[in-house]
Amino acid sequence: MAEARDPLTIRYLEPVGRLTVVRQDPPASAASFSATYVGPGGWGFDAPGAEGTARLVNQLVTSAAGPYDRVELARRLDRAGATLSRQCAPESSEVTVWGPADAWEPLLGLLALVVQRPRFDPDDVQRARRQLVERQLREATQPAHRAERELLLGIFPPGHPYRGTGLGTSRTVRALSRERLRRFHREHFTGEGGLLVVTAPARDRAVRAAAARLFRTLAEARSPTLRAAARRPSKGSKRSVDLPGRSQVEVRLGGPSIVRGDPRYPAAFLANEILGARPLLSRLFQRVRERGGLAYHASSALEAMRLAGYWVAQAGTGGDRWRRVLPMVTGELRRLRRENPSPTELDLIRESAIGELPLSLESTAEAHELAVEAAYHRLPEDHWRRWPATLRGVSPTEVREAAEAAFGSSGSVQVVVGPLGPA
Amino acid sequence: MATGRVPRPPHRHFTLANGLEVVLAPDRQSPTASVWVWYRVGSRNERPGITGASHWVEHMLFEGSPRYGKGEMDRAVVRVGGELNAFTDVDFTAYFSTVPREHLAVPLDIESDRMTRALITDEEVARERTVIFSEREGNENWPEFRVEEELWQLAFREHPYRWDPLGRKDDIARMSAQELRDYYRRFYGTRNAVLVVAGGFEAGPIAEEVRRRFGPLPAGGESIAVREVEPPSRGERRAELAGPGTTPYLQIGYRAPAVGDDAAASTLVLDAVLGGENRLFSAGGGWGRSGEHPSSRLFRGLVDPGLAVRATSEWRPRRDPGLFTVQALAAPGVSLDRLEPATLRLLGRLAEDGPRPSEVEEVRTKVRRTAALAYEGASRTAFRLGYFSVLREPRFEDEIFAAVLRVTPREVRDRARELFVPERRVVVRYRPVAEAVDG
Questions:
Q1: Is B140 near chain A, with CB under 8 Å?
Q2: Least CB-CB distance to B373: which of A100, A296, A316?
Q3: Which residues does chain B have with pLDDT short of 70?
Q4: What's the pLDDT at A2?
Q5: Which of A92, A147, A337, B305 is least surrounded by Cβ atoms within 10 Å, i.e. has the fewest?
Q6: Same domain, yes or no, for B36 and B139?
Q7: Does B182 share its domain with B248?
Q8: Do B365 and B416 belong to one domain?
Q9: Which of B214, B245, B264 is a domain's end point?
Q10: What pLDDT was estimated at residue A230?
């Protein structure tokens, strides 16, 4: 390709039927290629009593497809030096192929095959069920996973698509028939509501033509729409689970938050970086670990999705030190909501976040993640190029106001899981 | 692609008068620059009483020096959008920073300073003790960590591989700041270090800058040779752990060769055939945890028939003889009394019949294809160049790459026959104690 590469800009190509197609340049000198299909097949779409469907389907599409059983599919990937990975979230189901750039078109064909023609071989279905049931059990008794689950149960009301972790129960998973999985796949791996992002050293026209040829079956398929259940007024809650015999207690504080499309998102992003997301510099890291010496990890996250969002502040610590960590975390949350960050602190965090962009362009896989994020949230083509200016336009007051909205105390949940010992 | 060499980016390798090895890998197109300092110092250099010292020193090297007060190193790198971190292994410790290319001087200054001048004060050691405990406790929440720690402890009675790099709890509780300072001064110096710089810079000026910053450092770093030689084991060793959880878990280890052994290449291929992991030439970090590989022997033999939900193998190359491990997480309703014999039968069949020629050819193809992508980006380039340098020497990657491509099915069979015998075997079984699960 003759033109200079610009991995910070994505291009929305002419859709293939109802399927949105996006192309991105790989970073300079990168030798690999990535492509991702994102479809409306997250666990928020699981029918009541059929929880676990989306996760099983997500796993099985990467297992065997078309003429290839699971062994032959794995061998074909190995021979190509490629990998298939998958991710299931409340709203979406995602499959990514990664491999050598010189094989981008055959590998895109392999992605098209698994997304459109998964086999759901009976023995694969059995195996995937066993794996999911074991994971349910393990995650229910592992403090970090259990804390995450309790947090989501506390934040989102029954019926909300983000409630829970999509693993289902042994009863719901064992009851899922092969036909039910196939139907979910047909209805949720669709062109409508679907997205294909290709990071390849190829021209737009070539990518569009390949997508049109390879994703024909999917292109016109329609999808259901995910709707958030009407929220009850949240009262907030405290949940604790005593798991004796473990070494560390996991502490989570969280609550409902804004969606990614909210105009306050850039300011909320900075609020999150200040609170706990910016490595080494964040208030939680400094307060709990560097000054308090109380925990190895202390951080925060802002999960702003299409329909809803949530925030979480978290730490893990042994013995009864969690009793000292908890007020530190709540104190930092209160401060975030009530006080503007100083211009010096905001500037440090902001410039760090801006300076980090080149690090996201070290490899095709990392740059590709930026493209998928932008395209999934339907952000402008030059979103990442403008991101530094967007962040520099945020004032300390806007950060505090966004923190009130995005890290609000209303409906917040406190979760403590692990060897709690005597109260 | 020719079969004998890994397609690495161009790089220069030279040694300063004080013994510091330097590797420079410039890539004009890279938007970033990555600086890694690798010390050939890890938990194998510790002794009972100060286990975990390498890891603790790793933490302390972020806590200040005469030039950088507490937290200033972090701020210097992070404020320009860089990231920095470190990790400790049994054979080495690595400190790394990746920054936008125009800020390369920042990590070079930090590394040249903390190589010999870290403060390691009493106050900071006292504060960090709880953080170290907390890191260990986080790991202990996973049965897999407890089992692995027990396995190595059981397999080795003399060699320092018998403890985990995190160190023993009682040592963490009592180790003094002075002991950490002594350990740091004894081993951390130019003679035991490799500096790797990769990314967007011109080699000439950066070579000069490296000489200017690191050349004046005093030659330091005592011998890292380990005197303890583990005697051959004379019979199977086993242990059963009971603890919280829901899933029975099995690890089997076999005493295995060191990375410098002639058997290294065939052991790598054996690992790939069994567990599916292409350990040294994958495009990621190169020594991470195994994923799921449906075409591997363990997956087909244990996961497919419903005995396990996960089954992998691992031979991580080490400077001294270590373990080849096989691990399996039982499927619901499957006992360890069923899983263990099935695993041993599978290993026995491979030792008896060897792999099919097509299985070995698959491994070769995979190694060739993924090795071509392993060097994408400044951070990965610096990681790989440094890793092979401290494991053996810079050209070791080419040697082992060529050797892996020459391995025959018969050699893999012979390796399996040599390794998978009861005298070399260590078994740890994790039996979950029943607890209520409201799944």
A1: yes
A2: A100
A3: 1-3, 283-291, 436-439
A4: 43
A5: B305
A6: yes
A7: no
A8: yes
A9: B214
A10: 57
What is the spatial distance between Cα A418 and Cα A420, in angstroms, rounded to a whole number? Answer: 6
Element (H or E) spanning B435, and its range? none
Q: Is residue B86 part of a domain?
A: yes
pLDDT digits (tens, 9 = 90+) for A253-297: 999 999 999 999 999 999 999 999 998 899 999 999 999 999 999
Domain of B172, CATH number, reads 3.30.830.10
Instruction: Give the chain A residue whose CA is nearest to the CA of B82.
Output: A356
Q: How confident is the model at residue A421 (pLDDT cuts 50, 70, 90)?
A: confident
Tell me the percentage of chain A whose pLDDT exceeds 90.
86
The residue with tokens 């999917």 is: A218
Enter the tokens of residue A412: 């917040």
How much is the average pLDDT of A315-339?
95
- The model's pLDDT over A131-159, given as tens digits with 9 standing for 90+, comes to 999 999 999 999 999 999 999 999 998 88
Residue where one domain finishes, among candidates B148, B183, B214: B214
Does B151 fall in a domain?
Answer: yes
Q: Report whether A372 contacts A10 (CB < 8 A).
A: no
Residues from chain A that touch B433, judged by Cβ atoms under 8 A, are 245
Domain extent at residue B53: 12-214
Domains contained in chain A, CATH given = 10-219 (3.30.830.10), 237-418 (3.30.830.10)
Which ipTM value was assigned to this complex? 0.91
Number of domains in chain B: 2
Same domain, B45 and B176: yes
Which CA distances in Å does B100 have to A143, B80, B103, B212, B333? 37, 7, 6, 22, 52
| Residue B84 confidence (pLDDT) | 94
Count each helix (H run) and each strand (E run) in chain B, helices first.
15, 11
Mark whether B247 and B118 lie in a shared domain.
Answer: no
Residue pair B213/B138 in contact (Cβ under 8 Å)? The answer is no
| Contact with chain B for residue A363, Cβ under 8 A | yes
pLDDT score at B18:
98
Residue B68 lies in a domain: yes
Smallest Cα distance from B64 to chain A, Å: 12
Q: What is the DSSP string of A85-138?
A: EEEE-SS-EEEEEEEEGGGHHHHHHHHHHHHH-B---HHHHHHHHHHHHHHHHH
Q: Is residue B232 part of a domain?
A: no
B59 contact A CB<8A: no
